[in-house]
Amino acid sequence: MTKHGKRTPLIKSLLSSQQTAKVAALVAAAGLITAAGVVSRNFYQSDSTAPINTVTAFSATDSAASRSAARGAINSADKNTTFVTVKINGDSRVVLGEKPDMTTVKDVLETGNITLDPSDSVSPALDSKVTEATVITIDRANADVETTETEIAFNEVRKETSDLPKGQEKVETEGQNGILETTALVTKAGDKVVSSNVFASWVKQAPVDKVILVGTATSSSSSSSSASLGTTTPAGEIQSWAHQYLLSNGYSEEDFTAANYIISHESGWSPTATNPTSGAYGLAQAYPGSKMVSAGADWQTNYKTQFKWFVDYCNQRYGGIVQAYNHWMTYKNY
User: Where in the numbering of this chain does the G5 domain appear (predicted)?
Assistant: First the structure.
């Protein structure tokens, strides 16, 4: 899902027919959303995003605080956070960002990640002042909203248990791939795709891990189930790096299992995941994504930077990754 686009100043792009303007839209809903889902999106992020020191807990998964991005919920997250609704060819979303960076229409667009074509119609004007009641409308001719689905690979988790004889294995849960739904604004000339701008991608269905129980009981041992989260086999490059990073820094297999479960449900391990109803961004669905600048200036696209921020966040707020996992399992957000 990661896309690396060349950054182009908004005004220059609007004045030139040869360039597109890189503009961004962080997204936050103004009402309670009851349907579960994590969303990802590769929107260009402004270079001027300021660091945010306060770590807050907003998940992008279920109908918890992160899915209820009303004014009260946003206030509880960060007093400096605000939002403005953006409607792109009829598809509504809300741009989430810091108040100093969200004073005009141009500011709002540059805070998130929408791509403006020179021929796009934008209302109000780019220099218009905005409030949380503002609705910015972007209309693009000859463009359609298209939705696609891709699979999210499940993981294999091995858990030791003294309920089975040593060496015996039993499949407790069969694995099932998840579904990542992606929505894009597609412009065509006849049957040829001229441009395809992804503005939302969410975990429509979270993957289900394949859980294998591994017996440890001997004739002299007593039978009691283990509370361990087990050992997870990484799937893919990003997970493999995250697994090695944790083990190299004193963390355990159980920590990776916990991290994998959270991130698989939050973003499907997509570094550009953006929730269209809360604006949460990246692997860990940071709220807003610009918080991750504390881990590196390349937080928009670098999964390593994002994962390091995730680990620090779990340690700061919950005292560890497993503790964050326990909170997630109870509240379906962290």
Answer: 138-218
The answer on pLDDT for 143 being more than 90 is no
* pTM of this structure: 0.69
Q: In terms of DSSP bridges, do strands 210-217 and 169-173 run parallel, antiparallel, or are they unpaired?
A: antiparallel
Number of H helices, E strands in the chain: 7, 14
Looking at 153, 184, 217, the residue that finishes a domain is 217
Number of domains in the chain: 3
Nearest-angstrom CA–CA distance, 61 and 36: 6
The answer as to whether 262 is a domain residue is yes
CATH number of 205's domain? 2.20.230.10
Q: Using alpha carbons, select from 233, 223, 94, 91 the residue that is nearest to residue 159.
A: 233
| HSE-CB of 10 using CA atoms within 13 angstroms | 22
118 and 104 part of one domain: yes
Look up the CATH number of the domain holding residue 129. Answer: 3.10.20.30
The angle formed by the CA atoms of residues 70, 71 and 74, to the nearest 5 degrees, is 90
Per residue in 228-269, pLDDT tens? 899 999 999 999 999 999 999 999 999 999 999 999 999 999
Asked if residue 128 has pLDDT above 70, the reply is yes
SS3 content of the chain, % helix, strand, coil (to 5): 25, 30, 45
Strand partners, 280: none
Cβ of 107: how many Cβ atoms within 10 Å? 22
Asked whether the bond before 165 is cis by omega within 30 degrees of 0, the reply is: no
132 neighbors 84 (Cβ within 8 angstroms): yes
Query: Using the 8-state DSSP alphabet, how is residue 252 labeled?
Result: -
- Going by C-alpha positions, the residue among 120, 107, 132, 127 that lies closest to residue 48 is 107
Same domain, 298 and 245: yes
Residue 265: strand, helix, or coil: helix
Lowest-confidence range among 99-103, 222-226, 243-247, 250-254? 222-226
Beta strands 121-123 and 38-39 are unpaired
106 versus 251: the higher-pLDDT residue is 251
Structural domain range at position 261: 237-331
